[in-house]
Amino acid sequence: MINNEEFQDEIGNNHISTSAKNPLREDAFAISDEEKIEKIKKDVQNILITLGMDLTDDSLKGTPNRVAKMFVKEIFGGLNPAKKPNASTFDNNYKYGEMLVEKNIIVYSTCEHHLLPIIGRAHVAYISNGRVIGLSKMNRIVEYYAKRPQVQERLTMQIVQELQMALGTEDVACVIDAKHLCVNSRGISDIESSTVTSEFGGKFKTDQTRREFLDYIKLETKF
């Protein structure tokens, strides 16, 4: 019989998601970013001291504060809804009705199981239903949802759902091809493997449209 700790390790080691949304507590934003940084700084300091590091060394003195600011302001900044990009759209006045593909969007995210990097590329497409979105907004949506503890399947779904809502159409698709350092640098330590996830909505569920999109991106990602 598997105990609770073993079960949790099984989920983490096999990178299984247990929630379609990022699991946030209701009081996640009850304190300010500055207060969070102070709390995290002390925790990082304790980790390093427990590992035996000498925090009086000039190279390490600022590490707890640097890590705390990085967590709150940078790599987990996408947890804060105040940082959500304004996905403004415009009328499709030029009546472009074919597929629009933005490929090779760089993804820097963090695996929520081991807090190690996920590095790869996202390929996003949509077919206008009367509205269009600026190209840079697609990159910003990818970045926003990537900047949080994540699993790749959830990230892929969130990007599609956000664009569907912004554009008022189901005809959105996303494919992500990424390396997980929790696989590449620990555990099985397979430095070559990458993970591919996809989410197809509306017309992209049909064989012809999906095949056209996949042909555009060709999945020849290089890291």
UniProtKB/TrEMBL annotation:
It catalyses: GTP + H2O = 7,8-dihydroneopterin 3'-triphosphate + formate + H(+). One of its GO terms (biological process) is tetrahydrobiopterin biosynthetic process. One of its GO terms (cellular component) is cytoplasm. GO terms for molecular function: GTP binding; GTP cyclohydrolase I activity; zinc ion binding. Keywords: GTP-binding, Hydrolase, Metal-binding, Nucleotide-binding, One-carbon metabolism, Zinc. InterPro entries: GTP-CH-I_C/QueF, GTP-CH-I_N, GTP_CycHdrlase_I, GTP_CycHdrlase_I_CS, GTP_CycHdrlase_I_dom. Its EC number is 3.5.4.16. SUPFAM superfamilies: Tetrahydrobiopterin biosynthesis enzymes-like. Zn(2+) binds at C111, H114, C182. It comes from the Bacteria. Pfam families: GTP_cyclohydroI. Residues 40-217 form the GTP cyclohydrolase I domain. Pathway: Cofactor biosynthesis; 7,8-dihydroneopterin triphosphate biosynthesis; 7,8-dihydroneopterin triphosphate from GTP: step 1/1. Belongs to the GTP cyclohydrolase I family. NCBIfam families: folE, PRK09347.1-1, PRK09347.1-2, PRK09347.1-3. Homopolymer. HAMAP family: FolE (MF_00223). This is GTP cyclohydrolase 1. It comes from Flavobacterium gawalongense. The gene is folE.
